[in-house]
Structures are given as structure tokens and as C-alpha cells.
Amino acid sequence: MASSTSPTTEPGPRDGAADDLRAAIDSLDPAALGVEFHAIIQELYPICRSITGEGLRASLRILQRIAPLELHEVPTGTPVFDWVVPREWNHRSARLIGPSGEVVADSSRLNLHVLNYSVPFRGTVRLEELQEHLHSLPEQPTLVPYRTSYYREAWGFCLSDAQRNRLVPGDYQVNIDTTLADGSLTYGELLIPGLQDDEVLVSTHCCHPSLANDNCAGMAMCAALARLVSRTKPRYSYRFLFVPGTIGAITWLALNEVRARRIAHGLVAACVGDRGRLTYKRSRRGDTEIDRAVVHVLRSSGQEHEVRDFTPYGYDERQYGSPGFDLAVGSLTRTPFGEYPEYHTSADDPSLVVPEKLVDTFRRYVEVFEALEGNYTYVNQAPKCEPQLGKRGLYGAVGGKSHAQASQMAMLWVLNLSDGHHSLLDIAERAKLPFADVRRAARALEAAGLLLKSAG
Amino acid sequence: MASSTSPTTEPGPRDGAADDLRAAIDSLDPAALGVEFHAIIQELYPICRSITGEGLRASLRILQRIAPLELHEVPTGTPVFDWVVPREWNHRSARLIGPSGEVVADSSRLNLHVLNYSVPFRGTVRLEELQEHLHSLPEQPTLVPYRTSYYREAWGFCLSDAQRNRLVPGDYQVNIDTTLADGSLTYGELLIPGLQDDEVLVSTHCCHPSLANDNCAGMAMCAALARLVSRTKPRYSYRFLFVPGTIGAITWLALNEVRARRIAHGLVAACVGDRGRLTYKRSRRGDTEIDRAVVHVLRSSGQEHEVRDFTPYGYDERQYGSPGFDLAVGSLTRTPFGEYPEYHTSADDPSLVVPEKLVDTFRRYVEVFEALEGNYTYVNQAPKCEPQLGKRGLYGAVGGKSHAQASQMAMLWVLNLSDGHHSLLDIAERAKLPFADVRRAARALEAAGLLLKSAG
Amino acid sequence: MASSTSPTTEPGPRDGAADDLRAAIDSLDPAALGVEFHAIIQELYPICRSITGEGLRASLRILQRIAPLELHEVPTGTPVFDWVVPREWNHRSARLIGPSGEVVADSSRLNLHVLNYSVPFRGTVRLEELQEHLHSLPEQPTLVPYRTSYYREAWGFCLSDAQRNRLVPGDYQVNIDTTLADGSLTYGELLIPGLQDDEVLVSTHCCHPSLANDNCAGMAMCAALARLVSRTKPRYSYRFLFVPGTIGAITWLALNEVRARRIAHGLVAACVGDRGRLTYKRSRRGDTEIDRAVVHVLRSSGQEHEVRDFTPYGYDERQYGSPGFDLAVGSLTRTPFGEYPEYHTSADDPSLVVPEKLVDTFRRYVEVFEALEGNYTYVNQAPKCEPQLGKRGLYGAVGGKSHAQASQMAMLWVLNLSDGHHSLLDIAERAKLPFADVRRAARALEAAGLLLKSAG
């Protein structure tokens, strides 16, 4: 390959972090990362999180050991668009004792037992009255459901339907030791400045208590992504948000309305560790660069996967994709929310998270960042007919063979489509070649003086 | 649901007839309507109609008992674009007597026996000469065909091929007692004024003699549609045309060229009662609102159906879709013209019309009107993030469940897409929800002050 | 059909060559043309062609007997974009003699045996050294490959892998009597002037030695196409180029850069005679008129065929489709280059070319020219409703039948879509009718005064 000392053709750090991200992918140790992820999930899992409170703070502090998140506190009562930051909920214990003194439910054994945001209550109630405060799943009788009551004051317990059916008439002692008081909503944030002010957003929800795939896995993965990106000098600025679902995203958007306009590309991470196939839910606009980058990465993966259109239901892509923002934010998950039987039940425990699958999801996120970082548009400097690659050492010398090598095909595609109107991602899609191969070809041609980056 | 006294959020009569049409659909008595349709068809069937004449007038007068059509007479010789209104044809009797005095064909038994627009003729002809005046169907030897000779003076009889083959040599007495003389072309019209001058056109042909599905059924159905719409206060003005095929539509367009420009949406109704599936033939432009409304209604019906592109052959969509008009007029039929074996033969008798199918077609027309009437574009008044539906009583209070109810999904879709660029029909299509559900959600959100109709 | 003496409605020679080309197709004698093609291929096949030299000149002179090509000589050293016209190669003989005096390879028996562009060499080499100069195909052990070394000085032989494996150790006598010296690159060109300056380009490569399908067949077919077009008075100007692959196309484009901008439509012809199905590779833009014309012709052929998107690999469409030119040039072949097992081997001999298939390819090229020549846009002069075709003798008199004849359907389509925005090819595509039928209908309507050619 020809070498050159011209500053315009020398690949340098201004190219973004694509090279570093590719190197990280190529040197990834899946087993070691899987072990690390599993340990973090085990640590996060038992904590009783909610959309506010000490459980949320404690979880974010664990993530701070992985990446330097900043914790923000937004006071109760702060208006955030059509909503108001709620009172802070804290939970010490919640027990339900049966007529014979037996423990029916105890949040210290499984924090799903307490209705999340339950108001404090201490007293004795008869079974008939108690029933109005119980939640169970008749169709999954052995599982404890996860239920919340953020915006209607209520107390309650969740338990398996099998257990509920065994409850005998009589007096039950309720002792729910929680507080609901003015305080603040907490979220974690890390901004990694890049060469450009445009941002890549990665947002994940942190409000669920003992649910491993939804979303201890997402919290761990996003922290590891933040750690990786912070070790590069990226082209884009990267913003990682660890927020309570719905109200957290709304709060961030309300307090950062101007900054939100800088988000050029974004992903909502959730349900990233189960054994299901990767599933991409497009952004509201559906054909943005993030949509095309993710679809390209999934196609190139050679794995079974699914791509779906946007719907206004799901996780925080609902807020980022509301019509007043309409940000280019999709959601890359494994099995989508609500579609695996363990979803929002006691069966979403750490055993549901498959380390290799979680590492695979991590890898695809990094490949998406690689595509965004490296997705430049070049202009062919010898656009009339093909340039003679052979004299530059870029082409085989003996002719007559019928198939060009993959690297030569990538060069021919890059040369042919680098007319200022096609980015490398456009070229990779049209050529049906992996982005990394196309980018490698472009860098070789750039080094040979045959390509220049488009100013546009 | 929140109530409101603000005039801007109160759903009122200015919303068009969608509510009334939905109520009519929901309270439809299919059996009763089927009986009514069958009686009308039985009454229309024996009349010897043509593109002019007393049979046509008599038929329109029957329809006037259902809806207040106005009858128009256009004199023979009136130039209508490239055509001229022809002389008026009237038929008293037509008999063909064989060599032994037997009746070979008698229009009083079946009016298809006389070549439609046959000139009068009385005389004796030998079999060889007679053959040039006979029409039969060798491939359907037991059926009598329907044939016309509007623009070339001729006399003739139609009979079954089986009968024709049994004709013996000899002299045949022909007695065709018809008149072809200056008079007028008759058509029926009903304009139901709406809130807007833009019109919905429904056009059906009335020129065929004893053919039940083509088009006694269409005449009956369109009259019933006119009756229903005239009992509402529609948004659009509705124009129902009962015209002789081709020349009638051309005549109306020539005499109403300026008014025709007001036709915003239209359908040609024909072959609406056979047992075949519903078939929609798109307008010439193919992607107009009427096309999308009909396709949406058919998809939401859950029934097998077919959608076809426009072709310049068929019924009067040919004229409405000529390049000088290019109106948004499609055609909603059951089995399309020419595609059922009984088409234009004596087998298209009242038994071919299945009352339930005719009522089903009627219902789909009403649903199309409902979609047109209710297809407003709204603007979300709280577009930044989702509004808090719960505090307005529009959302379930206990969270954590995985699937929103259909009504909640409809509200989320309407909020998300009501950016001023998506009508309710757009939203129904994208959400894959029935139009009525989407409209109901929009009305609830409008009542809660979260939506305003777009001025555009 | 109505006749007319008005100059605006009389079809005349200004209509291009579509009528003549259709007549040529209809009167084609496939057997006779097949015999002619076979004779030319037999004559071209044994000549040792390359990208320069006497073999190329001799081949073009043979084609001059069919069509009056002009031969151009471009001197060695002429800069052509990023390339330079190479030295001229000429070959007299090349023999390889084994240790026992046996002839291992002799280019007089098969000119593929000599590495094309081999430098001269005379000497004795041991087997081990010889191996570095041998080319064979381990996966096709009985076939001799075609190999070139245009831009790296080398000598060598090509032979079957079976023979190579039988070579015994010892001394081999090499006698390659070639010259590589300043001279010129030769190409053939025929410009047939048309009514317009815009050009139709047909380009075929002439550099391959004894390969029959690739491309003696293409050379013969293009010469016959040039002969046919030169006997008409076409609307477009036609430029036939017979060039050495890659460097020849680059040379022509470099020396004719301004003229190249006149190329409105073009095809690269190669591999046109094998028994495979027709395959069209779209132009770089993919949706140009040539793309649509070829796809229409292939669809109307009723034969199995394939349409592919452009790729920047293949024959000279690579150069015509480089981003600095981006010409509307596709490639119509039978089995594409590299996809039949005989490709670039000794098995691509005259027996691989099937005369009927080559004639079929010829016919499709002519049909493409017919479509280009006749693809006018008309304006309906009676656009409001349908004109009365019957009074002009253009329509059957007895009505009521369900299916219009094909010719009537073509007239209805042409009338309906001739709004100044649809060319006849657009209409043929939408109507799914053969172009010739649509054009015939348009000419009849034009003669009746119902259509005028659009000025645009």
C-alpha cells in the first residue's frame, strides 16, 4: 500500500473512534466480560429499586465503580412537562402475616412482594378486605408479579396465585414500613465529549426492583459501554443516561430541552440478556442513520434477528420519540418487553440472563457505535473511469480470474459510490459488505490519495 | 373520562356524520335490509331498461320511493364532449316466430331476447339471413346473452345456443316493435349538502335490462345509501348519480364540468350482490384518500378481499378517471364485471344476488363514508413527552402489566402521530387499528383538551 | 381506420426507426442469421487477440465486412485519465518443450497457452523455476485457463492442471516469441447519425483471444446490430464501440469526454451466446430509460430471465458507470461473466455458443432499440371522458361483451395515460402490454387525430 505524508490523506485521530472500537471488538474476551456482567447483576438484583429513593441511588453508586456517572437529584414537585416529580419512596420492610402467624409475604425475601410505591400501612384486615390489596397471576400461578402504584396512593402485596388460593379466612397482619415524602428523583448521567457536539444517546431504565433481565442486565451493559467509549476519542459526544423509566426520561428531557436537540442518534437499552434473538425497534422516523446502522449491524451479524417499526408503547423511546422531540432514537433489545413469559415476574431472576447473549448484545452496540463513528462520506479524486489500482499495489497483478477478492470489491464499491452523495454506510448496504470491510477499503484509498472526506 | 365545557374540546355536530354512520352500522338489521333489497330487485328486474327510454324512467321512479332522487332529461342531439346524446329507444314487444309457428324468442318472457336498441323490424326472413341477426354463446349453450347495438342501427335477437342449433330451415317471422326517435336521456341525481362543498360521489349504472347483480343490486344499494346519508348532517356533500353507463356519466360530466371539480372522493358501485369477495379497483391516481379509506375498511373487515390497480376498462370509473378529469374515483364491487360466468347472461337473475352479501357491501360503503367523514388531522397540545393520561382518568392506575388495552394503544398512537402531518386514517393504517377505534380515542383526547383539530 | 392528410397526424419518418426495427424483427430468419453468426465466430476464434496488437486489428477488419467500422489507433504512452496506453503486444509463437523433447504447450494449437502479454523469453529452465511461470486450474483439471499480465512484465504458459501434474523433473525449453514495443491501441467505432444528437451506445470488448462466447459472439452480434441500424433512419444517433476491455473503454472516454455526455442510453454486450437465460445488469442509476426498456423487453419475452442491480465489477459498464460519468449504461448478457464453468477457459470454444440463443439475444437488443426509438410521449386531444372510438372505426359495434380485444385495451390505456406525463414505455409497463402493441395503438390514435406528440 502506498504511504503518504500529506496531511490530507493521513488517517488520524480526527477519524473518530471507529478504529479503537473495532480493535475492542476484535480483542473482546467474551468469557471474562460475561463473568463481570454476571457479578454486577448479582449485586444489583436484590436491591429494592423504584422510580425514586435509596434503592435507586445505591444501584447507581454500584455502576459508578464501572464508569464515572454523575448522580443528579431533582426535587419532588418539580414540574416536568405534563408531569410533576413525585414524592420519594423508601422501603424498609413489608410483611404480611396470616391468621396462624405464618409469613405470607415478606419483601426481605423477594422485594417484588411489596406493591412498588405502596404507602405505609400497619393493621389487621380480614381476608375479604385483604384480597383487594393482593396481586397475583392466575395464568402463571407459581410466579410473583411485579406491580406498581406510582400515581394512586395504595398499599398492597404481590404473591403467587397458588399461595393466594391457599389463604384461609381470618385476620391478617399487615406491616408495610415505607415512606412517601418530599425528596428527589435520582438519575445517573455520563457525557463523554467528542470532536463534535452532536450526541449519541444511550438510555436505560433503573427503576425496576428484582428483575434481572429487565433491567439489571441493561444497567450493567450500559455502564460497560460507557467505560469503553470513555477510553476512546470519539467523533460524536456520547451521553449515557441511567434513569427511572418514563418519569426519569421525561424529567431529563424537560430539564435539558435544548441539549436534547443535539441528540443525533440514540438507543434505548432494555431486556438485553435473555436467550432470545436481537430485536431492533426503529425510531419514530424509521429511516434515520441509527436505524440504518443498527439494521446493517444485525444483518452483517449473520444471526437471526428481527426489525420492527416504531410503536408508541414500550420503554423510553416513547418519550424520545414523542412528536415534540421526534428524536432518532430506536431500541435494541433481545426479546422485547412483555414477550417472554418471565417478564415482570419473579422468574426474571439472574438465571434468565445468559452471559454469552448479554456479551453478544454488548458487541452489537459497539458495532453500532463503530458504524456511526466511521460513517463518513468521501469524494473519489479520480472519478472518471476506475483509477489504476494495480500501480498503487492495491490490486492483483495477474488478470483473467473471474472473482475479485472481497477487499478489492470493497475498494471498487467505495470508488464507484464516493460521489459525495453516499456515506460508507450507504455503500456497505448497497454492496452488502460488512461496514468494517468498507471502512478499511476507504482508509486504504484515502491513504493512497484517491479519496478525500467530504466537507459536508 | 374527564368532562369539559370548553367549546374547543366539546365534540359536536361540526364533526360530520361519522358518529351517526357508526351508530347506523352498529344498529344494522341485516335480515330486514336484505329482505328490502330483495323486494326492490324483484321489482326492478323485469323492466326492459336501456340507456334511454321509459324502462329507465320507470326504474328511477321506483328508486324515488327510497330516496328523493331528482330526474333529469337531456334532449337527443345534445353534444357531450366527443359524443352526442342518442335518440331515445322504447320497446313494446319483440317476437320471433319459427316456420311451424312456434315462438322462438319473445321479449315479454325475457327482455334479454331483444337486441338492446334494436331498430323496429317486421317481416319474414329465411334462416340463413336470420342467422346474421342472432346472438348466442357457444361456450355457454343454455344461456341467453345480453347484447346491445347503441351506435349502429341493427335489429336482432339473443337466444341460447342450444335453441339456435335446433332452428330448422325455413321462413321466420320477425316482429320487433320498438321506436328510436328524438327524446331524451334520463338520469337520477341526489345531492345531500354537507358542511363543506367538496363532494363524495357515488355513481351507479341503470341501463341494463334483466340483469340482477349487474345492476339492479347496485341501484337498490345506492338508493339505500342515499337514504341513510340524507338522514345525517355530513361533513362532505354527497352526490348520488343513477346514470346509464358510459353515455350517462359522460353526459353528466359534460353538463357539470365545473361541479365535477368538487368531487373529492368517489366510488362507482356495480356487481355488489353476488357471493364473491369484495374487490376494490383503485382510482387512476391510486393513492388518494378514497383509495386508502376503502383499503383500510376492507383490511379491517377481516374478510378475504382483493385490491386492484386502476385500468381504463370497466364501468364509469373510466370516465371519471379520464385524463381530463382524473377524479379520485375508485370502484368497490364484489366479483368484478366480466369475471363471473353469469355475467351479461340470463343467469344473472335475482337468485344470483345473495342478500347477506349485498348487505355486507352496503355496510362497507357506510364504513368508507364513516372514514371519510371522521378523517380529521389533529394536533397534540402536549407534544413533548407523553401527557399523563392517568391524572385525566384515561389510563389504568396499577402499572407493571405488559400490554396496554386496545383503547390505550389507540390513544398513544393518536398522541404520538398527531403532529399535524397525520390524519386519523394515516394513524389507523400505521397502528393497524380499526378506524372507529382510532376516532374514538381521538374524540376522548379532544374532550380532555389534549388534541385540537388542525386548521389545515 | 380513419385516414388523414393533416401533417400533424401523419406518421412519418420523423418517428424514428421503430417501424423498421419491428419489421426486421418480424421478418427475422433465425436459421440464416445463426449460420452467419457461427461462421463469423469460427473465423474470429483462432486469432490471438489482446488489448493491443495485430490480432485485435485483424479481428476488427473481419467485422468491417459486416458493418463499416472505423479503426482508430491511439499511440502507446497516451495518458488516459489515471492510466497510460500501454506498449503494443504482438505474438508470433510460444512453445514449451519438455525434457524428452515433447511439446508441452504450443500457442499455435491453442492461443490460451501463452500468458497474454507475456514478454519474450528464450531459454532453458528447470521444472522448479518453470512452475512459477505456469497457470492451471486445480478445480477444473482438464481445462486450460486464460490469464493475462498486462501491467506487470512476466512470461508464462497456461495449461491444464492434469498435464501440469504429469510434468517430470528436468530441463524445459521455453521459446516465447513475442514483442512488447511502442505502437498503438486499436479500437473500432461506428457512429450512425440519427435525427437527434443524443446517442445510444453499444459497447463490446474485443481483447480476448480464443474464447468464443466471451466475446467472439458479442463482436459478431454487435456488428450485425450496427448493420441493421445503419439501414434505418433512427431517431437517436447510434455509436457502436468495439474496444479492448477496460483500457479501451477508458481510452475512448478519455479522448471523447465531451461526446460521452451525449450518451443517453447504452448497453455493454458480452457473453451473449451461451444457453443460459438472458440477464440484465442495471445501470448505476438503476431506473433510467434503458433500464426500463430492457426490463420491459425481457418481461414481454415470456422467457425466464434475470435482472440484477449494478455492481462496480464486470465489463466496461464499470467505466461508463464510474461516478465521473455515471452514464445510463447497463449490460445485457446471457450467463454473466464468471458464472458459467467454461468462463475464461479452453472450454469456451465455438461449441459453447448456441446459434438460436445468440439470435435470441440479437432479437432482444433490436427490441430494446425499438422501444427507445418509439418511446414518445403523447397528449390526448380529447381528454375529457373517453372519445367515441366506434364512430372512427376503432371499436367493435356490438356491445355487451365482457372483454375488450387487446388492441382496444391498448388504445384505452394510451388514451387514459397520454396526459403528457407518461411515455409509451410507461404505458406499456403499467398496462402490462408489449411495447409494440402500445405503439401500434398510439399510431392509430395519432392517425385519427386523437393524439399529438408532446413537444417536451
Biggest β-sheet of chain A: count, sense, barrel? 8 strands, mixed
- Overall, the morphology of chain A is elongated
Oligomer: homotrimer
Strand adjacency order, main sheet of chain A: 1-10-12-11-13-16-14-15
Q: Could you tell me the radius of gyration of chain A in angstroms?
A: 26 Å
Instruction: Please mark out the parts of chain A with pLDDT under 50 across 5 or more consecutive residues, or reply none.
Output: 1-13
Instruction: Determine the number of helices of chain A (DSSP H or I, runs of at least 4 residues).
Output: 14
Total beta-strand segments of chain A: 19
Structural class of chain A: alpha/beta
As a percent range, the share of strand residues of chain A is 15-25%
Could you please describe the fold and organization of this structure?
The structure is a homotrimer of 456-residue chains. By secondary structure, the first copy, chain A, is of the alpha/beta class. Helix content of chain A is 32%, strand content 22%. In chain A, the strands form five sheets. An eight-stranded mixed beta sheet of chain A has the order 1-10-12-11-13-16-14-15, with helices on both faces. Chain A has a four-stranded antiparallel beta sheet with strand order 5-4-9-6. Chain B binds chain C through residues 80-83, 116, 135, 145-152, 154, 246, 249-250, 253-254, 257, 284, 309, 311-313, 318-319, 321-326, 337-339, 343-344, and chain C through 380, 382-388, 390-391, 397-404, 409, 412-413, 415-419, 430-431.
